[in-house]
Structures are given as structure tokens and as C-alpha cells.
Amino acid sequence: MSGSPARPQNDGALDRFTRTAEIATTDVIRTYSTSFGLASRLLGRRHRQHVRNIYAMVRIADEIVDGVAAEAGLDGSAQAAALDAYIAETHRSLRSGYSSDLILHAFARTARECGIDEELTQPFFDSMRADIAGDAAFTAHDADSHERYVYGSAQVVGLMCLRVFLRDETRTDAELATLDHGARQLGSAFQNVNFLRDLADDTERLQRGYLGGSERLTDADRDAWVQTVFGQLADARASIPLLPKDARAAVRSALFLFAALTDRVAKTPAAELYRRRVRVPDPIKAALAARAVAITMLERDR
């Protein structure tokens, strides 16, 4: 399949199984996210499949708590049990390097090659578990729980990707600190602008208040969150030149896209955000990706 890594076809059963697993993760990102799918295609070949494997693992966990399990008829306790089983199998696969679950098998290969361990996966799963409402009619986050949720659901995913990009690289301690901060800030920006664009679905279907607790956001609240996101994007932008060159165009493309999305959110009344999902048209996405590639081509290699 297009986008899957080229490997010899006369290899053993495990390699064949791993190839199949990575076809599955490529299909997940293609199905669920045009934006990240586009950005991943801009990554160097040595990074591309690893990032797709990470995305697929976190996407499946997110789907367990965001409605798929509920639509299948699982109540809150059954959803929690499904998530716990997924967590247990993820961590078993990290230890063994194998899972009968194709997505987790592919993720385990990436995690073991790139140094991703439970220090990053467990906070992610903790945030996913927080999305299972249980007996609560509405889940309202305050400032502290918002910060914890964003760290687990988004910042650690940025750190996972950073471990992919740096696995064959050498950086100073100061550079690593800048890169870690940039990865976390980029994850936060992505998550916070998605909270803004998804206000309608989060509050009505999922019964969650990520940004304003149980209160509806005002235009002033929206403006404050927009400024927060732009600050996070600025921090992330400053770290991009420290990335290996074959990762920069993809990261820039994603950053440009979410900056454009934030611009559109900033111009949309808060009341309207509760009625429709703001998006960036595909031709603009393509233009932003081309701009990211052009900027990166003019930079020197590290």
C-alpha cells in the first residue's frame, strides 16, 4: 500500500506481520485526520512510519472514550474496562515487542526503537480515563485538571514524536530543554485550539467542558484562549530549527495549519462555535504545506 515502508518480501513471519501492522496504522491516520496525514507525508522516510504508529495508538484509545464504545452499547464501566484492557495490552507489547493487536504491535516497534516508555504512555492513558464520565452528567475541568489533561492527552504525544526525531541525533542539554518545551507547547496549542473548534460536540454530545468548566465561553474567554494558543505556537516555532531537517517541514506544516485554524476561531463568535466546527479548507492546507517545505529547503542541515 502507498505510504507503507518498503521492505524485502522474502523475510520471516514477524517482519511480514509488522509490515501488515504498519499498513493498518497508515490507514488509521488516513481515515481520521487529513491534517496530520498531510503533515506526516512531509516527514523524512526514517520518521514517517514511526509517527503514524504513534498516531494510530493514541487515536484508537481516544475513540474508545469518545463515542465508539458507547455507540456499540457499552456503559461507563464497560468502557473503562475496554480502556484498561487496551492499556494493559499496550504495556505488555512495550515489554515484549509483540502484540496480536496490529496497531499496538506497530506502536511497540516504534516505542522500543525510539525510547518511548510508560513514563509517556501512562499520563496519556490517565487523560483518556478522565474522559469516561461514569455517573457524572457533565465533566467540567478547572484550571488544574485542564493542565493535567492537556499534559497527558497532548504534550506527551509531542514528546513521543520528539523521541522519534532525535533517536539518531545528538543535542546539548540546553538544546534538548528547548526542544522538549517546544514539543510540549505545540501539543498544548493543538489541543487547546481543538477544544475551541469542538465546543459544540464536546458540550452537547460528549458532555465535557474542557475550557470553561460548566459555563459557556464568552467572546472575551475565546480571545484569552486564542492568545494562549498563539503564545504556545510561538514557543514551538522557536524550537523548530533545532530539529533534524527531515522533520522540520512536517512540524512547520502542522504549526502553520493550526495557526491558520486559530485565526479562524478568533474571528468566529463564541456562540457560533457552539453550533459549528471551524475548519481550514483543503487548498489552504496544501498551500501552507508548500510554504513549510519551501522554508525548510532554504535552511541548512544540522
UniProtKB/TrEMBL annotation:
PANTHER family registered for this protein in UniProt: BIFUNCTIONAL LYCOPENE CYCLASE/PHYTOENE SYNTHASE
Q: Does the keyword Iron-sulfur apply?
A: no
> Which GO MF terms does the UniProt record name?
transferase activity, transferring alkyl or aryl (other than methyl) groups
**Can you tell which superkingdom this protein's organism belongs to?**
Bacteria
Which Gene3D superfamilies does the UniProt entry name for this protein?
Answer: Farnesyl Diphosphate Synthase
Q: Which UniProt keywords apply?
A: Transferase
Principal EC category: transferase
Entry's EC annotation: 2.5.1.32
The protein's matches in SUPFAM superfamilies, at most eight in alphabetical order, are given as: Terpenoid synthases
The protein, known as = 15-cis-phytoene synthase
